[in-house]
Structures are given as C-alpha cells and as structure tokens.
Design brief:
Elements: H1 5-14, E1 21-25, H2 30-40, H3 49-63, E2 69-72, H4 78-81, E3 89-93, H5 116-121, E4 126-133, H6 139-159, E5 163-169, H7 179-196, E6 205-208, H8 231-244, E7 249-252, H9 258-271, E8 277-280, H10 282-285, H11 288-295, H12 297-316
Parallel strand pairs: 1-2, 1-8, 2-3, 3-4, 4-5, 5-6, 6-7, 7-8
Helix pairs in contact: 2-11, 3-12, 7-8, 8-9, 9-12, 11-12
Length: 338
C-alpha cells in the first residue's frame, strides 16, 4: 500500500508521538441538543447555537491537552476548534446529523454548504464520515451507500486529505442494545470492516465499533445478567474482525460509559489485535451534560477539569497495546513512508 504526502501530513497531525490516534470526539449535534434540552428542562428549539458552541468549546479547551486530536462538526464546533491545545489535530465531520428517515435504510447525507476542500479550508487535518450500515439490508440500499462512500473517497483523494469512515451497524426492527442484536453484531462488524477495507472506497482509517457488546460478555464487569458470548469467544471476534481489516482501524466508544469503554480496551489489548487507537466521545464527557444543564458553564468546566480529565486519562492508559497507524503500511515511522 502507498499513501500520499498530504495524507501522511494529515495522519501525523492527529496521531501522538508514537503514531497512535488518541482522539476525543465532540461532533454530536442532534443528540447533544436533545440532552441539553432535557437537563435544562426546555424545548430543544430553545437550545441555541451559542449554547451548543459553549458546551463544545469547554470540552475542547479542557480535554484536548490530553488528546492527540479532536473531532468536531463545522456547524457548532469551529469556535471550539480554535480553543484546542496546540498538540491536538483536527478532524471535521462532513455528514449531516442523523439520517434520512423518510426512506428505509437510514440513508446519509452531506452538509450542503461543505466539501472536503471547504473542511480543509476550515482547518481540518482529516475528514470524517458517519455511515449507518446493515450488511443484511436490501442490495439496492447498500449499493447506494457504497457509491456514496466511494464518491467521498474520490473527493478526499483529490484534496489529498485523510478519510476516516465511521460505520455503525444495525438491523431494522431489532434493538441494538439487546441480546438478539448482540449475537449478530460480530458478523455485521466483520463484514463491514472487510467491505470498506477495499481500495475502491479510498478510506484511510476505519473508525469501528468493537465486534461485541460488552454487556453480554460473560464475566465482564459490564455484564449484569444473560450473556451472548464467553470471554474467549469475545476475544476471537476481536481477532477475526482485525484479521479482515486492510486499513488502519480505531475503536469508537459508541456511547458507553467510561468504565465500560475502559474494560473494552482492556479486552482488546489482551487479544493483541493491531488497532491504532480510539476516537472517544461520550465515554469521556457525557456525564457533564446534567452539570451544564443545571448549573452552567463554570460548573461544567470544573467537572471537566476533574472527572473529564480522569476519564480521558483512563482511556489513554489503555492504549499501550495500540499499534502506530503507519505500521499497517509496513513502516517503522511516518517519515519512512515519504
């Protein structure tokens, strides 16, 4: 595999000195607005752009000294981007929040006033896309999604900017937090990682779910009842998913608690899989939303400086087994790829 100079530069900007991506995520929009509204006791339309930006800026200012990069959205996050620590690179989201619910298939769309070029002009070192993906969906639905991912890949190639593809698996009509989906999830994640590793998509980094739901791993701290897999089976799923990846991949936290995500990374480390880091959002700062909603900015900053920093350090402490992103190219350093 080869990688261009611009993509090397972008990757170096979002990785730490060891070549590991230890990034924070703060690109939530619709879900964040709903949660702030709930905690403030107001309608979501009363959570204005200033509130969204204020929350994001506080998170970025306090947490990025401990992160290799921050993922933001250009709608509410550009002010926050300017507040990030000098050590932190910038990824910007290209997709609209949510998905098209007027048609089956959770089809995505792009922000209408942005392009990969415009995101770079706004300061992005890398471009990120979120895709809801169900391998079992009708072929015409996934064909449309495949073309969409290809189109963005070509755009990022043309701009010579790294392309991070985040996919979240699902199955219509099945509770994604339940045991039925937990049993199907390993196969879905493995199939998605294999599909989007293909060169035709132009993806540089796969931002992936772990292939199991820790709430159903027998013996895990997160498992409080019925299990879907033993610990050894879970490890095998981690290894099988990693084996099909032909691009560097990092794990997303998928909205779980800091404790659960930390345990997840411990399990990944035990398996010896060649993951290249994390892009961790809500596991670090979600519990700050009630603090902000009820007590305001100063209380939010105090919470972040204490619990938020502890949370991100918990994640960082579990990245010792992560491999440098450039190792996927058979290189000992990013400079060796030039």
């Amino acid at each position: 595999m080869k990688i261009s100079a611009g993509k090397i530069k972008g990757m170096e900007a979002v990785a730490n000195a060891k070549g590991v991506i230890a990034a924070a995520a703060m690109d939530q929009r619709g879900s964040l607005r709903n949660l702030i509204a709930k905690e403030k006791g107001v309608d979501k339309k009363d959570v204005n752009a200033d509130m969204m930006s204020e929350f994001k800026e506080a998170v970025v200012r306090v947490l990025t000294p401990h992160a290799s990069a921050i993922l933001l959205d250009p709608e509410f996050g550009l002010r926050a981007a300017r507040a990030r620590a000098k050590n932190a690179g910038l990824l910007l989201a290209y997709e609209e929040s949510g998905y098209d619910n007027t048609r089956p298939g959770r089809l995505p769309d792009l922000l209408p006033n942005y392009s990969a070029r415009r995101l770079m002009e706004a300061g992005a070192d890398c471009v990120k896309i979120l895709l809801y993906y169900a391998p079992a969906d009708a072929p015409h639905i996934n064909d449309e999604k495949h073309a969409w991912v290809e189109r963005i890949g070509d755009e990022c190639r043309g701009c010579d900017v790294p392309y991070f593809l985040e996919f979240v698996t699902y199955e219509e009509g099945v509770d994604e937090k339940g045991i039925e989906f937990a049993r199907k999830k390993p196969d879905f994640v493995i199939r998605a990682m294999e599909e989007f590793s293909r060169d035709r998509y132009g993806v540089d980094v796969l931002k992936v779910e772990v292939p199991v739901n820790m709430a159903y791993v027998a013996g895990s701290r997160a498992c409080k009842g019925e299990s879907a897999y033993t610990r050894d089976q879970a490890k095998d799923y981690f290894r099988r998913a990693a084996s099909v990846a032909k691009k560097p991949f990092i794990y997303l936290s998928a909205g779980v608690s800091n404790e659960v995500f930390s345990e997840t990374l411990e399990l990944a480390s035990e398996t010896g899989v060649n993951f290249s880091g994390v892009l961790c959002g809500r596991a670090t700062w979600k519990d700050a939303i009630p603090v902000y909603g009820k007590h305001g900015l100063r209380a939010l900053e105090d919470w972040l400086a204490d619990t938020g920093v502890k949370n991100i350090k918990n994640v960082n402490d579990r990245l010792g087994a992560a491999k440098p992103w450039y190792a996927f190219y058979g290189a000992q350093s990013a400079a060796a790829l030039a």
